[in-house]
Design goal:
The complex is a heterodimer of chains A (about 290) and B (about 525).
Chain A: E1 3-13, E2 16-26, E3 29-34, H1 41-48, E4 56-61, E5 64-65, H2 70-74, E6 77-80, H3 92-102, H4 107-120, H5 136-147, E7 154-158, H6 166-179, E8 184-189, H7 192-198, E9 201-206, E10 209-214, H8 216-222, E11 227-232, H9 237-243, E12 245-252, E13 255-261, E14 271-272, H10 277-293
Helix pairs in contact in A: 3-4, 6-7
Chain B: H1 2-18, H2 21-39, E1 42-45, E2 49-51, H3 55-78, H4 81-88, H5 90-95, H6 101-134, H7 142-169, H8 176-196, H9 206-217, E3 228-231, E4 240-242, H10 251-274, H11 284-306, H12 338-350, H13 355-370, H14 375-384, H15 389-392, H16 398-401, H17 405-409, H18 414-433, H19 435-444, H20 447-471, H21 475-487, H22 508-532
Parallel strand pairs in B: 2-4
Antiparallel strand pairs in B: 1-3
Helix pairs in contact in B: 1-6, 2-3, 2-6, 3-6, 3-7, 3-8, 6-7, 6-10, 7-10, 8-21, 12-18, 13-14, 13-19, 18-20, 19-20, 20-22
Classes of the chains: A alpha/beta (about 290), B mainly alpha (about 525).
Amino acid sequence: MNLDIQGVSKQYERKVWALRNFTLELGPGVLGLLGPNGAGKSTLMRILATIANPSEGAVKWNGADIAREPDALRNVLGYLPQDFGVYPNLNAVEFLEYLAAVKGIEAAAARRRIDELLELVNLTEARKRPLGGYSGGMRQRVGIAQALLNDPELLIVDEPTAGLDPEERVRFRNLLSELSGERIVILSTHIVSDVEATATGIAIVSKGRLLAHAAPEALLAGLEGKVWEWVLASEELAAARQQFLISTVTRRSDGVHARVVAEAAPGPNAQRVAPTLEDAYLHAVSQSQRQAGS
Amino acid sequence: MRARVLYQIARADFLERVRRYSFLVTLAFTLYAAFEVNRGNIVVTLGNYRGVYNSAWLGMLLSLTATSLITMVGFYVIKNTVERDRQTGVGQILAATPIGRVSYLAGKALSNLAVVGVIAGILLCAAFAMQLWRREAAGIEVWQLVGPFLLLTLPALAFLSAVAVLFECVPGLKGGFGNVLFFFLWVSFLAAGIQTHAGYLDLLGAGFIERSVRQTAQQLPGYDGGFSFQMGPHSGQRFETFVWNGFHWTGTVVGQRAFWFLAAFGLILLATAFFDRFDPSRGMIHRAAAAVGRGARRARREEEESAGGTPAETIREIPRAAAGHLTPLGTSAVGGRFGAVLAAELRLMLKGRSKWWLLVALGLCIGSFAAPAGEARGKVLAFAWLWPVLIWSAMGTREGRNGTAPLIFSSSRALERQLPAVWLAGVLLALVTGAGMGVRSLVAGDWVHLAGWLVGAMFIPALALAFGVWSGSSKLFEGLYTAWWYAGPAQPTAALDYMGASPDLSAHIPAAYLVATLVLLGVAAAGRRRQIRN
């Protein structure tokens, strides 16, 4: 099982590139795709989901070019787009039965699968209610269920936890971890904590380019000794922001506790702390912005 | 302040619309209409006469063309201004501002007027250009060219703009039913205006135009009293010409035309009563329904409480499932049959239809069996195949409108399996609703009508699918199909009869529509291919 993204670029309008020369090779596991808004994550997802063609480069699924042979991938693809809709007059079972037919799943197998999926996404009680009356979070769970309908080998989920309450969010993260065994899962998000809990690999994207691709441990190791907790006065914060990359700020009685990513201690009372993925992500994005600026 | 708000609402909406690709298509259509006028395929004639193409005649002719075309086609172009705010979510933002309903809807109507006004403006420019091009009369008289546009076309367009806003606000008229109903209202309204000769009912001003040009033509030798405004290929007949010097704008006439502005404002005020301010629970009808519902719920609650039962509205805690389990799907479970997709599409197509809809469809189906042969049977079939228009019009647009496109288009063989299933579901619907006609033609050995019926059942969904896939909206099919239905099978006019309803059907008509069906299916497939891989 192999997904090979070879030098993929996507141009939407003249001189507007959503992706530039994106190369990545993936095997089974959960890839967390992190990047700021407009980084090109959704464009990459659409290309991988075979609903957009790359302007340059190729994507190969087990050696087959998905632009030429999309069905080789579509048969084993589960896709949860960032924005999707439902048919409001159908209930969850009918909607999933419809999509199961479109995906070519046998009726008996589909029925069993739909029961299990509705149980899994906690919609069994609401299964007979028209989807038009569902809340945003419930629709999102229907979306998750449809992505898993055909037991996909490649599961692409774009901002899957948007609209989910904290409990459902944790539930979905656990589900992704359980599913990741013998399949490739690509989880696109800008919420680092979602990735932290599930990803076996992380790709950081900014302005259409791949900035880093590594295991979470490797990304964290790269920042070892470069993250500091620094207590400073409130009025010093603005100046510190100009000078350093500050990932988080917490206000306490003794002053502002700033988490700073820097080679050397930003101040005399700065304490070295263990890096997090959020630090690594912000560091990678800010470095690329600095390089682009210079 | 209010004028500025009105202006900004109209401006933003106008700019959003004219910067869309579809507006370019509308402009191209307008230029084509002007070209047809210049070719003599859109004419006003009085028996064997037509006017010399001076400023007065061209102003009248192009103004009448603009008013006739825009009041019909324009409705389908502009009837989406409130809906766009609903779909884009801008409406939610606007609803949270202090803007009043009247200001909002008046701004939207003004934007509608600006859009159709641009279209009319193009035809006005065409009138100038035609006078220079044809050189039948020297000297351009600006008022003679502009006057009819200002006093005849503009009031009609203002009224149309308000009608479109009203249709968007009234719950039952928002969707496809409103699109179909508008066509019949338009035809009836037009006919009533011309026949009654009452200026206040004559939206197009056609009666006023007729009286004005007739007055001059009365003195022409051999004038038979006829007046005709024709659109379509001209017969090659050569007309005598006469000079017409324009309208005599009396205070009464100007007052009659100004009435339509007043009527437009009245419609906007009426629309405010139905406008839900982007909260479906706030519209007039919903408020009434909610009041009825509240009463019913209260009665039920009281009944339950008196019986010691559990109140119906108690929300039960949904139990959280423990760790989930998914049985792996074997490879044999995936592969799928076409029949399953077809059944799924059929179910989707019919889901949500009321039992009344089904009952009427059943009645028309039975009627097509019971109706006597000949024209009556054709009429029943025509109605049987008008009734499902809103189901067909959703074909090809459903995926985009409901946001399911990425889910369906990323499935295997979406083009080869799902698209044909959608079409075939539409064909099956046509076959069932018009079954009587087919069965009786078969029994009678009337092969031409049988072929016409069969081809019609294939043609309608193909047309809907092609229009839906390429326009992304159901309005194009709803408007055009209804007009085609009216001009073709309902009259019946043999050449336009795509369903074989005319008694004097010849074999080459179904053959032509079969070819058209194949072309439309190809067009739909090409459009869907483009949607799947962009």
